[in-house]
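Q: Entry one of two.
A:
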Amino acid sequence: MDEIRIDNLEVFAKHGVFPEENVLGQKFLVSAVLHTDTRPAGRSDELTASIHYGEVSAFITEFMQKNTYQLIERVAESLAEELLLHTEHLEMLELEVKKPWAPVGLPLECVSVKITRGWHTVYLALGSNMGDKKQFLENAVKALDTWKGCRVEEVSSWIATAPYGVTEQDEFLNGCLKLRTLLTPEELLQVLHKIELDAGRERKIHWGPRTLDLDIIFYDDLIVETETLCIPHVEMHKREFVLRPLHEIAPYKHHPCNGKTVREMLEEL
């Protein structure tokens, strides 16, 4: 990925733990590395094909001046999120916020916080076998698409499938979607649980009937195994009701553990 750099943009703003810092203000230095594809602009000579670093600099200045936070960690996190949400063509961002002459009672040039944030590609499986199944699934798609830091890019068709695990229950309506998100896997899992809860999901019987079921299948090419989260989904390669709709929107997505494409895993079933 190519880079556009902004080095040590000077901004006078009011951030700090001490009350006088929030009143009197002080100078901050902000540096940003904007990760994007510069080739379209490089070949066309069109500014709209790239990131306008002047507008980004103005955005940083305005954001720093109109908000007041105690910690520069919060400044960096909030600013990075807003830049990613509002800057076209920006895929990833390295951001450093420097605070010269920080009031620590010792001679130093500055303290700073440096973070890297960016968009992630996630594939989710959706299912419902209670009530108005189609409406539950469509509501979940809408909720995800309107959640801050999430953008639904593609949704499969819905397919009717036989229940899995506990078979004496109504058939399911299943599908998959492609999501772009700024959330971490853990943050996304919390959002999914909130959307399920809002749909009346009750976790009484394992693999039992449910109004809404949302599972993370892939998160970039990340491999995660904790007590609460397993990515890629541990059972996905065995489930036709996941692979069929996933194949519709991502047939050549590779499983980061076994290296097989979604198409290959579906054919093996």
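Q: Entry two of two.
A:
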Amino acid sequence: MEFLFNTNVQFFIAAYLVGGIPFGLLLAKKFAGVDIKASGSGSIGATNVLRVVKETNPSLAKKLGAATLALDAFKGILVLAVAYFTGLSEATLWGIAVLAVIGHCFSPYLGLEGGKGIATGMGVMMFMLPYETIIALIVWAVGAKTIRISSISSLTGVAALLISSFFIHPDMAHAPVVFIVFILYYKHIPNIIRLFKGEEKRVV
């Protein structure tokens, strides 16, 4: 058990545990009295919070959706920021980023179930690759405004981030970025299937 006293390992564990906090589930239960795991898409993310709570309280839905989005992004940044100011290596920071996303998508508090990972992924990417993340957010915003299908705007934004990273940082090791993108797309497989069937719902 000596490895648990290793600073890197401690931060890896913290990233997974903090990343796994299901803020959407907690906020919806506390303030709206609903279980978003049992409603809508069953996801713990901001989109499902907005969709489910909106059925009974539209004004509260927007507030809880925004709060979920912010907290899910922040939890990815939090451990990274502490690790950065502790002086840990860039390789360790990338490990923390990956584990924060894994924590959200496969939460230890929800039997390894979780959300789609977009907000947490964008949070860690904003810390690690700010320029690429800005590009991704612009692409996402345009898609959200025009197409109004959350999964399409999210996945196109993620793709834009990955592609732009090869142009902006051609010499960096892209494996962590590719892995995070893979997780995000993997978690969206049900959405992708519904898109091909024409059954994916618009955000209204």
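A: Comment on entry two: The mean pLDDT is 88. Residues 9-197 form one domain.
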